[in-house]
Amino acid sequence: MRQNAGWAVHTPGAPLTPWTFQRRDLRDDDVAVRVEYSGICGSDLHAVRHGDAAAMPLVAGHEMTGTVTAIGTSVTRFQVGDRVAVGNVVDSCGACPACVEHRENWCFAFPTVTYGGVDRVDESMTQGGFASEYVAREAFVYQLPPGLDPAGAAPLLCAGATVFAPLRHWKAGPGTTVGIAGIGGLGHLGVKFAHALGAHVIAFTTSKAKATEALALGADEAILSSDPVQLDAAKWRCDLILDTVGAPHDINGYLRALKLDGTLCTVGIPPQDWHVEPMSLLYGAKRLAGGSGDGTRLVRDMLDFSATHKITAEIELVPATAINSALDRLERGDVRYRFVLDMAR
Q1: Which of 52, 43, 9 is nearest to 330 (CA)?
Q2: Which residue in 205, 245, 248, 316 is a FRET match for 267, CA 20 to 30 A apart?
Q3: Residues 29, 75: contact at Cβ < 8 Å?
Q4: Tens digit of pLDDT for each residue in 47-75?
Q5: Could you give the residue range(s) of every CATH 3.40.50.720 domain in the chain?
Q6: What is the pLDDT of residues 144-188, one digit of tens each?
Q7: CA 7, 294, 55, 268 torsion: positive or negative?
């Protein structure tokens, strides 16, 4: 077994504290990664504050970049010293229709997630990337393209893939108008990707400050969705709207902002159900869809696209010892736009 040092929560809502634990020895197709940067996602916050006590101690974190330190005997894609990344899925059944299409996030047998999941070989619980090292199957480790800042690239492994997948699926590009609702950890990357894909980008936000920031990130327009006049003026304008909002909100104004046959794709997870006015959806033959990161092929494409267009997350880099204050600030929404832990500090 491989000894690891990590930051674990032992009781839901308690502060994270240093914890020494064991990773598995390398199997033939495994890669060991020294974790250098680890992003903090909203799902990490939920897991440590509101997770299942029976699954603790828990080391969260699923947006990692680092360096390969060891490889299994059958590994061919990596060598010791390679700069790599690991995301939120580290194994899957490999045989269902989703896995055959390299869309492992939707594995019919459920994917093995980076932490709090069940290892498919030894049935141990997976522990995440708020730690000194991670061990994963070669198929779920990604080369980090040269030129991508490893700290700014870490959130791409979750937030980046989450917004890139639906933009690609619904063919955002020249001649299309894409709305991004919510300019936060997901939304700011949605603006960057949609702009780089060549779409006309409209940012929808309730914040005047974020409206200004969205324009600097690449949006062509910014609309205050809290202003009924501005939102009403956006009717029939968007081919696609990505709803990244994780707070309670009304989606009917966004549905009315869609063109004929337009799609509103939700990637945020608000805590309350929506009330959908049927005519907002029916009038114009509009679609309400769900999306998220898609799988290994999509993540590789997203990283290559990010390198080509020099896209990384806007981050606040903090030492690992500041993990609890970063989680507190994230819970208050006090971050522009993602926290990343420097695991060496």
Answers
A1: 43
A2: 316
A3: yes
A4: 999 999 999 999 999 999 999 999 999 99
A5: 159-290
A6: 999 999 999 999 999 999 999 999 999 999 999 999 999 999 999
A7: positive
Q: Give tens-digit pLDDT for 211-265.
A: 999 999 999 999 999 999 999 999 999 999 999 999 999 999 999 999 999 999 9
Q: Which residue has the tokens 């799902």?
A: 43
Structure tokens at 188: 């700011």
For residues 291 and 155, give the distance between their C-alpha atoms in angstroms, rounded to a whole number.
17
Distance CA 40, CA 27 (A): 28
- List residues bridging with 85 in a β-sheet: 65, 142
Q: What is the CATH number of domain 2-158+294-342?
A: 3.90.180.10
Cβ atoms 33, 136 nearer than 8 A: yes
User: 159-290 belongs to which CATH class?
Assistant: alpha beta
Look at residue 15 and give its three-state secondary structure: coil
Question: Where along the chain do the CATH 3.90.180.10 domains lie?
Answer: 2-158+294-342
B/e letters for 39-52, b = 16+ CB within 10 Å, e = fewer, are: bbbbbbbebbeebe
Tokens found for residue 318: 């903090």
Q: How many Å apart are CA 290 and CA 272, to the nearest integer?
A: 16
Picking from 177, 181, 163, the residue whose alpha carbon sits closest to that of residue 253 is 181
29: which 2 tokens? 């197709």
Pick the closest to residue 223 from 178, 168, 289 (CA basis): 178
The residue behind tokens 């990130």 is 217
Say how far residue 19 (Cα) sits from the centre of its chain.
25
Contact between residue 106 and residue 98 where contact means Cβ atoms under 8 Å apart: yes
State the burial class of residue 307 (Cβ atoms within 10 Å of its Cβ: 0-12, 13-18, 19+). middle
The percent of the chain in helix, strand and coil, each rounded to the nearest 5, is 30, 30, 40
- Average pLDDT value for residue range 20-29: 96
Q: Which token pair is 143?
A: 């080369």
Cβ neighbors of 14 (< 8 A, separation 6 or more) are: none
14/323 Cα distance (integer angstroms): 12
